[in-house]
Specification:
By secondary structure, the protein is mainly alpha-helical. The chain contains eight helices and no strands. The chain has one domain. The radius of gyration is 18 Å and the shape is globular. About 3% of the residues have low confidence.
């Protein structure tokens, strides 16, 4: 009975990619006081959680109004995710953003914690495993994000900067694989629909 919960948790964990966010978070919050950093952490996790949960409830309704199918979103999201993951895997350092008081909302809360990858994966998990396992998977992943960001300095010390970067690259490769899977599933579903209605 726990299998759907586990199978929902893993893709969302990969999509969130907390160890990929961690170096960016440390860079953005460098020189900020502990109190301000704690505020930013809670703001970012709350933002990411709210966006993910709201999308769970209204995502498909929006699709219905706009005439978009889940298969269309899987393909579009998969392509976008593929481009994003390939860019992450390419050599080069991301440009450092200027620090401001709202970084907990943007870019940390969205699109870093809850971006297109998480939203696309969330809809796919609801479609495959149901609402309850996906809801639990989102909450658990956000709690992990909260824990890791609150202990960011300890995690960096344990893994080391190079270790964190290496783990992040492995996550990026898994992200690429998930993107390909989404595109494949979307195309197969559309083809299945054509076959079903063909004479």
């Amino acid at each position: 009975m726990f299998k759907p919960y586990l199978l929902s948790f893993i893709p969302i964990f990969v999509a969130v990619n907390i160890f990929g966010i961690l170096p960016v978070f440390i860079s953005l919050t460098e020189g900020i006081s502990k109190a301000e950093k704690s505020k930013i952490i809670h703001q970012s996790v709350l933002t990411g959680t709210v966006i993910a949960l709201v999308f769970m409830f209204i995502g498909k309704v929006v699709f219905l109004i706009m005439g978009i199918t889940v298969s269309d979103f899987k393909i579009a999201g998969g392509i976008l995710l593929l481009i994003l993951s390939v860019n992450l895997l390419l050599p080069g350092e991301p440009r450092k953003k200027e620090i401001n008081t709202e970084i907990g909302i943007f870019p940390l809360g969205t699109p870093l914690i809850t971006g297109p990858a998480v939203l696309t994966t969330t809809l796919m998990m609801i479609d495959i495993y149901g609402f309850a396992p996906t809801f639990v998977a989102i909450i658990l992943n956000m709690l992990i994000v909260l824990f890791v960001l609150n202990n960011s300095e300890k995690v960096i010390r344990i893994l080391g900067v190079n270790g964190t970067r290496a783990f992040s690259k492995v996550i990026d490769i898994l992200l690429t694989a998930i993107a390909v899977m989404m595109i494949r599933k979307g195309i197969l579903e559309i083809l299945k629909g054509f076959t079903k209605f063909s004479p």
